Amino acid sequence: MSPLDLPADLRSRLRRLSLTPRRPAMLSAAGQHDSRNRGGGLEFAQYRPYERGDDLRRIDWKLYARSDRFFVRDAERESPVAIWIVLDASASMSQADLATPLWSRFDAARRLAASLIQVALQQGDCFGLMVASAGAPVVIEPGAGARHRDRLSLALAPLQPGGVAHWTRDVAVLGQRLGPSDLILFLSDGFDEDCVAGAERLAASGRDVALIQILTADERDFPFDDGYRFEDPESDGHVVGDGRALRAGYLARMAEARAALVARLDAHGVRHALHVVDEPADRPIQALFREATRS
Amino acid sequence: MSPALLAPFALVALAALAIPVVIHIARRTQTRTVAFAALRWLKRDPRYRRRLRIDERRLLAARLALLAAIVLGLAQPVLRGLADDRPVFAVAPGVDPARLPAPRQDNARRIWLAPGFPSLDNAPPTGGEGQDLVSLIRQLDADLPQGTPLELVAPSVLDGVDAERPRLSRAVAWRVADPAPASAPASSPPPRLTVRYAPDAERQARFFRAAVSAWTAPDLRPAFDAASTDKALGADPGALVWLAAGAPSAEVVAWIRAGGVALLSSDAVLPFEGEAVAAWRDDAGAPLAMQGLVGKGRVVHLTRPLTPSAMPAVAQADFPDALWRLLAPSPQPARVAAVDHAPLTGGRLLGFRPWTQDPGWLCSSPCCSRSSAGSPPADVERSRHDRTQTLAPAASPSASERRPPPRGPGHAGDRPAADDGHCASVPADFRSGGRGRRRRRPAPGDFDHGRLADPPS
Known about the structure:
The structure holds 2 protein chains of 2 kinds. By secondary structure, chain A is α/β, with parallel strands linked by helices. Chain A has helices at about 10-15, 60-65, 105-120, 145-155, 165-175, 195-205, 215-220, 245-265, 280-290, 290-295, and strands spanning about 45-50, 70-75, 80-90, 125-130, 140-145, 185-190, 210-215, 225-230, 240, 270-275. In chain A, helix 3 (about 105-120) runs antiparallel to helix 4 and helix 5 packs parallel to helix 6. In chain A, about 40% of the residues are buried. Chain B has helices spanning about 20-30, 55-75, 135-145, 205-215, 250-255, 320-325, 365-375, 375-390, 400, 420-425, 430-435; strands spanning about 1-5, 30-35, 75-80, 90, 110, 150-155, 155-160, 170-175, 195, 225-230, 240-245, 260-265, 275-280, 285-295, 295-300, 335. Classes of the chains: A alpha/beta, B alpha/beta.
């Protein structure tokens, strides 16, 4: 089960969703988002045969001279809103549940990324990708269209989480490329302090930032009934203990930490949602953009 | 009846029960490792004291039970008092119950010396005459616990006994019920002879006529019937002499197969069934007659023509005796006055307990050492000798012809001096076979004393 192949039911539910920036539209236009472009194309997209009604100025006369047929230059209209998907590829993302060892947190994150790309594709937005990992960050500039989606899928498919992500460096790299009204979506477990701090810093600079925290079902339920040695994949810390004895304390502290994170993100204006790996991928998207959809 | 352990020190091995317990506990602490990124919220509760938990309890129980069973087996559990150790008063079946002597102990268990050892209150067991009384005595001695007094009442004359007095593990009170001396066994009458001859062999019948005449008392008519082969056999022909070439008639063969005794001339053809042995030898040792079985009958087949030139023995004076021995061999001397056949003591303790023969690395208890010391090598050696003596009379009657005839039972007392002479017929491997496994740990000084030691009678 590849995380990039979206099931049909998920695909149909995604069709009803949309990604909306928090800020109200500054300019009104026919598109879903505001556009600062005044027609015409800046970037060549394709030739297409001339049809009645097309602007004569858009006919490529040089091509007419070569081929004796009318072709119209189609330009890609740039959307002012780009959706950046920031994917955490640190070692903690590779954690999987005991019950489903083949479906890791990173798989869920990739499926969520594919779903977001799908929604962005539906509404004609540009979408870009940045993968924060231990090595050099993978950055794919925003683009639109199915071909760009395939490019992102190609970049996502071979990724393997590992190491400790350099969030400070990667957020700085990202910040250089952001447009003023871009929507930045962090897909992370939220356990890394630098990740949350980076999101807060971006939000403080006026960007529209959202964080989808991805937890495994084991982290939510703590179903360990036996003695285990719990190891942190990103450090050499470990705790050896009996699951039943640890459960109550863990759940309480986890809920506390989760509430603290929510409060902190709310305080900094970072939208947030919770995604657990055994839930469908459209639920956090719906939760995240619900109020925007309603309005 | 109380349970006890012969080697209680083996219970020290119960300490091995800790091994599976330790294994189960140790394997439990080998917990699985899981990656858990939310480790910072996972803190061990200091109030929680780790309890000792054991997984796979049924497997642990099975392992403990197996170990405990092994240890208990090493400790040699016994049930004391299971056997009835009252004195035993055993009476041979031939004794008249009305003329029984009183048992020496009042609380004695009174039984018949019969298979199953029924109580003396029952009727005397029938058909007990054919039983081997000595074998029953040995069985009773082996069955009884060590030290149980045994009192045996035997009839005045014992039949079918071995050439040696039985040797038991305990001293028995041997009492003869009817002290009247037994009558001498009646001498058997000479066999009646029926001769059938072919026409050309009619002259040979005269040897047998002469032999029968020699057997018969002067005033009696010889029991002799000589006729041609075409005359049928009488109703009770006695022993048959067949003097004709070729196969005997079907009637004769059927009679032999039914149990008859026949002497065939050398040109007669009747193959033996099974092994044939020489039954009669001349002075030089050459076989004159072979003997074998045909059906249930016994056939003596002459090896030479019945002429004085080919077989000078027929013309000699002892031919009637030789013929009598051939046709009606005298029984083995197996009858003895019970007074002279009292069992000897010093036989091996026949209580068969193989586990006490183990090397005593765990047998540190005095019980065990006593039981291993209770069978000195002399007993083992002697009991093996007993076996060879016992086997000898059971061999085929023909084998006794080659052997020195068994001497009287009274001879057995001075046996150790004649030890080598008796064992000469025993194969060498039989004599030396048991010596290697006789004793695993030979004590210093008892090397091979068994064969030379005097019996402790």
